[in-house]
Amino acid sequence: MSSATAVGRAAFPYIPGLLSFRELPPLLDAWSEVLPKLAAPPDLVLCDGHGIAHPRRFGLACHLGITLNLPTIGVAKTPFVGTHTSPGQRRGERTEILLDGEPVGAALRTRDGVREVYLSVGHRSNLDSACRWVLELCPKYRLPETTRAADHLSRAALAAHR
After folding, report:
1. Please, where are the H alpha helices in the chain?
2. Full-model pTM
3. CA-CA distance, 108 to 115, in Å (whole number)?
4. Could you report the average pLDDT of every consecutive run of 10 residues in the chain (162 residues)?
5. Considering only CA atoms, which of 102, 106, 100, 104 is closest in space to residue 134?
6. Which of 9, 35, 98, 148 matches a 20 to 30 Å C-alpha distance to 27?
7. Residue 108, φ and ψ in degrees, nearest 5
8. Which distant-in-sequence residues (6+ apart) come within 8 Å of 88 by Cβ?
9. In the beta sheet, which residues pair with residue 75?
10. Both ends of the chain: CA-CA distance in Å?
């Protein structure tokens, strides 16, 4: 497994709904560092953010996927837009997130009796495969292993930078 981090000052202010303009530049810096270490580009990228479940239907997962021309899925800890009912309490149960009457994502239970995650497609993916992938990447915890690893890596990089 290869990894990379990028630490710096955000060049774009925090504005709700425009997170990708703030977070995409350091993601691309890290991407340019890790890409040469990979034998091949990944088949899928998971983002800690939203895809089309976004007020403009174009969240971080969409922006990154189009920029890299790779399939992406947004997986978030909290909902951002739309309405949904709570899925059943068993792993794999899900309900659609609706925005203006259209499905834009899913509330997905990744562990029995644990709070759901909120996912939506970003680029070159679909909701059914997104749910399957997220469940595959959540064998022990609520969040995908990739998100957990990235979170630990980013905290270590930030601590080393201070």
Report:
1. 19-34, 60-68, 127-136, 145-161
2. 0.93
3. 9
4. 83 92 94 93 96 97 98 97 98 98 98 98 98 98 96 88 80
5. 106
6. 98
7. -120, 130
8. 109
9. 119
10. 26
Sign of CA dihedral 78, 113, 140, 106: negative
CB atoms within 10 A of CB 70: 18
Tokens read off for 111: 């562990």
Q: DSSP H helical segments within 35-111, as ranges? A: 60-68
Distance of CA 119 to the CA centre of its chain: 7
Q: What angle do CA 19, 35, 160 make, to 5 degrees?
A: 65
Q: pLDDT for 17-39, tens place per residue?
A: 999 999 999 999 999 999 999 99
pLDDT in tens, 80-100: 999 999 999 999 999 999 999
The pLDDT of residue 7: 83
Spell out the alpha helix ranges (H) of 5-126: 19-34, 60-68
DSSP, collapsed to helix, strand or coil, labels residue 121 as strand
The per-residue pLDDT of the chain, averaged, comes to 95
